[in-house]
Design brief:
mainly alpha, Rossmann fold, Tyrosyl-Transfer RNA Synthetase, 2 domains, globular, binds tryptophanyl-5'AMP
Length: 339
Amino acid sequence: MIMKKKVVFSGIQPSGNIHLGNYLGAIRQWVAGQDEKINFFCVVDLHSLTVPQDPVQLRHETRSLAAWLLAAGIDPEKSTLFIQSHVSAHAEGCWLLNCVTPLGWLQRMTQFKDKSARQESVLTALLDYPVLQAADILLYDADEVPVGEDQKQHIELSRDIAQSFNYRYEEEFFVVPEPRIPATGARLMGLDDPNDKMSKSLAHRRGHAIRLADDPKEIMRSFKRAVTDSGNEIVFSDDPDKAGVNNLLGIYKAVTGKSEEDVLADFADARGYGDLKKCVAEVVIDLLTPLQEQHAKLMDDSAELDRLLALGAERAAAVSMPKLAQMKEVMGLVLPAGA
Ligand code: TYM
């Protein structure tokens, strides 16, 4: 029997300050799975517009993020890498899925509740954000969505939306996707507050995140300032008081790929948290230096970058536009003559 290759879809917002959490929680999994599967990776610029953006900055961040993904090892020969707004099926698909999504499902999303609580004026698009995300995934009949822990609820909503559509219109029309969350690195915490997730929107705060663009000195400084506790025990632990040390060990484990025992053995002779912080900083600097060099090269040749992204958009559209047409058809819309 011929096994059908699994389809993978994932996305990332070009909201600036891409950080180590994005890399270890998501991008590294995307790169690792490229050979066995059919992959779509998307720079979700329309999602970024759900909060106000400076247009010049957004355009720059979108290209820069695509360059980071390539620098991290996304191979345009093996994977389809594209910008969301280049493929109109995403926005249109979102509208159609809005028509099978009850409002209450969106109002319950924890990210919406958190983000809207922090803003004076909340845009409609912020509430609708997870429906656009569902369109991204469902238009490609994705089986798997590799993401960090914080996206789990959104992927579960995509499953609910797929099932709602299938129930109303046609059984098995959409593949119901599964989240794929890594065993380590799925939730990096802020270095300045280890009880709060490392996040792009806080990455401007000194010492909060390790940004992929940070130079070695900045990385060392951020780790040295990392909040720990008043003790001296280097152990993996669920105790909220030890969240800082736990986060540092988790980063070390994710970067080196070592087991917990081997990680602890590396620190058996450490003289306090200073040694721990320095060692973690060093493995992170070694990880990021080659990525930074590659990113700089790619940013120097924007024509080549744009060419690759245009190619990606063409390949993505070849899959998602026909699926969108099928959606319209089963929903009872009149397709234009000749379509
Ligand atoms: P975004 O841009 O916030 O994050 C991109 C990826 O990074 C993961 N991530 C983390 N992983 C570990 N530790 C952290 N502190 C951390 N912070 C972020 C996220 O889980 C994510 O996998 N809504 C999505 C983008 C999106 C998408 C999609 C994802 C749009 N359409 C379709 C999957 C499929 C988001 O805002 O990710």
